[in-house]
């Protein structure tokens, strides 16, 4: 994976992680599950 592409993926993971934390804290179960799936897709691409 090229450096810029890897850097973009890392930033996307950070963003999704923050959104996931917010969704969990506020009891938004469906949104949390959607975000977990998005994180899973990104991390599996490494």
Provide the low-confidence segments as ranges: none
Largest sheet: none
- How much is the radius of gyration in Å? 12 Å
Shape descriptor reads: elongated
| Approximate strand percentage | under 5%
Helix content: over 70%
Query: Helix count?
Result: 2
What class would the helix/strand composition place it in? mainly alpha
What is the strand tally?
A: 0
Order of helices and strands: HH
- What is the distance, rounded to the nearest whole angstrom, between the alpha carbons of the first and last residues? 8 Å
Rounded average pLDDT: 94
Your description of this structure?
The protein is mainly α and 46 residues long. The chain has two helices and no strands. The model has no long low-confidence stretch (mean pLDDT 94).
Tags for this entry?
single chain; 46 residues; mainly alpha; elongated
What can be said about this structure in brief?
The chain is mainly α and 46 residues long.
Topology at a glance:
Blueprint: H1 3-25, H2 29-44
């Amino acid at each position: 994976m090229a450096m810029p592409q890897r850097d973009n993926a890392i930033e996307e993971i950070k963003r999704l992680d923050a959104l996931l934390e917010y969704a969990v804290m506020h009891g938004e179960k469906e949104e949390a599950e959607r975000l977990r799936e998005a994180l899973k897709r990104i991390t599996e691409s490494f």
